[in-house]
What does this fold into?
Amino acid sequence: MYKKWMKRFLDILLSLCILLVLSPVLLVLALLVRMKLGSPVIFSQKRPGYGEKIFTLYKFRTMTDARDNEGNLLPDSERLTPFGKFLRATSLDELPEFFNILKGDMSFIGPRPLLVSYLPYYTKEESLRHTVRPGLTGLAQVSGRNFLDWDRRLKKDVEYVKGLSFAMDCKVLFLTVKAVFSRSGVAEDTGRTEGNFARIRQERLERTGKLKED
It folds into this structure.
């Protein structure tokens, strides 16, 4: 009952209430992002969701478009400003994802939506993460966020899917609030944490013939 009906009902109700209450905050943040980081204010990216259906994820941008003399974007660490670091550390950059939740692309709790390019590299077990809506936060994030290695992160996602319940969601929500206020487990180097997944899995496949080592 909870997984099929109540979870989605709560997502709609809570995201709508939060968007109404936080609308002044969203407006102020949008203005600050425009002034400090430029346009567009919203960073959007395609991500796989429920049933591997592709949707557009929304966040406040946290990096500039600074480029080198040849016109190439500078590394993330050089484009991430103190204001951008603040948005990430406080998770304020995630607020536009409430629109994704309201639309039905996402849920409050669930496996974080990763890049579309990662889809060929999941094992059959890990692909279970796409049998539920992706979340604003999830069990993997409150168990170490970006500092878990990929196998453990994906294992936590599968653990969440198999044990999905109201009690599980309450636990993840509590631990998320705790992590946000303590600002723990936030990785600033997105290239290190997310950009290496396909490379690691491809190298493993070439070396062992398996996507996941025993």
Notes: Residues 185-193 have pLDDT under 50 and may be disordered. Strands lie at 42-48, 54-60, 107-109, 135-137.
